[in-house]
TrEMBL record:
This protein's name: Streptothricin hydrolase
UniProt cross-references to InterPro entries, sorted A to Z: Isochorismatase-like_dom (IPR000868), Isochorismatase-like_hydrls (IPR050272), Isochorismatase-like_sf (IPR036380)
Organism this protein belongs to: Acaryochloris thomasi RCC1774
Domain Isochorismatase-like: 5-176
EC nos: 3.5.2.19
Superkingdom as given in the UniProt entry: Bacteria
Pfam hit, one: Isochorismatase
A molecular function GO annotation: hydrolase activity
Top-level enzyme category: hydrolase
Length: 182
């Protein structure tokens, strides 16, 4: 089964000093890079997703700002596909599905940010489109959230969303587990 790697929103605003700093984004990006290197070695398809906000007065990923640029730790190489999105679901109003089909991809490996937003919605959409999905948990990042006056720590958000995706949407593993089973 041909695999393709989807790297979602590893952009400057999610890192230290950015407008929407995530917990452990450096570690997630480091694991994304390990995945990128493995896919490059195998000459397997790679797809970068870059979110550009279309809202009036966005708080992050504002167009033409340093914050919306793909982080230098995972810079795309020449001829690697970069798709711009404006919604959490990387398939919505993009050519991602067409690129995956053209490359003959049947299984998507998903990493990036944010776990509870773009990783979740993209994985569920891929599943609905018939792809086998694999999410690399430690190559994804999130942040603390608040609901109804209650703080939900990033580690709890991460665990809840990985648990929710596990069945039936995706296989969930760490970077080490995934690379060891290649």
């Amino acid at each position: 089964m041909k695999r393709g790697l989807i790297v979602i929103d590893v952009q400057n605003d999610y890192f230290k000093g950015g407008s929407m700093e995530l917990v452990a984004m450096d570690k997630a990006a480091s694991n994304c890079k390990r995945l990128l290197n493995a896919f490059r070695t195998e000459q397997a398809p790679l797809f970068y997703i870059q979110h550009i906000s279309t809202q009036d007065h966005p708080t992050f990923f504002a167009p033409n700002t340093p914050g919306c640029r793909i982080h230098n730790s995972i810079q795309p190489q020449e001829r690697e596909v970069v798709l711009i999105k404006h919604y959490p679901n990387s398939f919505r109003e993009t050519d991602l599905n067409a690129h995956l089909q053209k490359a003959g991809v049947e299984e998507v490996v998903v990493c990036g940010a944010m776990s509870q937003m773009c990783v979740d919605s993209t994985t569920r959409a891929a599943f609905d489109l018939g792809y086998k999905c694999h999410v690399i948990s430690d190559a994804c990042a999130t942040k603390d959230l608040e609901f109804d006056g209650q703080l939900v720590k990033a580690s709890e958000v991460q665990a809840a969303f990985m648990a929710a995706l596990r069945a039936p949407f995706a296989q969930i593993s760490s970077t080490d587990q995934f690379l060891d089973n290649q």
